[in-house]
Amino acid sequence: MGNHGILTVAESVDVTFDNMYYLERAAMIQVLACSTQQKLKILDDNVVELTHAQMHKELPAYAKNHLDSVIRRLMSSCKDFL
């Protein structure tokens, strides 16, 4: 892939979009947090596991709704989107 960036793969386009969206957001927040040059707190493993379980419990349905909402916003702001 050379300089084409990252590749995201999942069982559906909806879940793939959702995974990429949250990966990008997490990276952005990590860069912002590191830019403070303060000691960062590491989350407790139990918190991480609970958050993961909660987010992935309804992932396919949530991911579809998330992508649909982004498409609706794009269609309303960019009339020639589709």
From TrEMBL:
SUPFAM superfamilies: AraD/HMP-PK domain-like. It comes from the Eukaryota. Coiled coil: none annotated. Residues 2-31 form the Class II aldolase/adducin N-terminal domain. Pfam families: Aldolase_II. InterPro entries: Aldolase_II/adducin_N, Aldolase_II/adducin_N_sf. Gene3D superfamilies: Class II aldolase/adducin N-terminal domain (3.40.225.10). Belongs to the aldolase class II family. Adducin subfamily. This is Adducin-related protein.
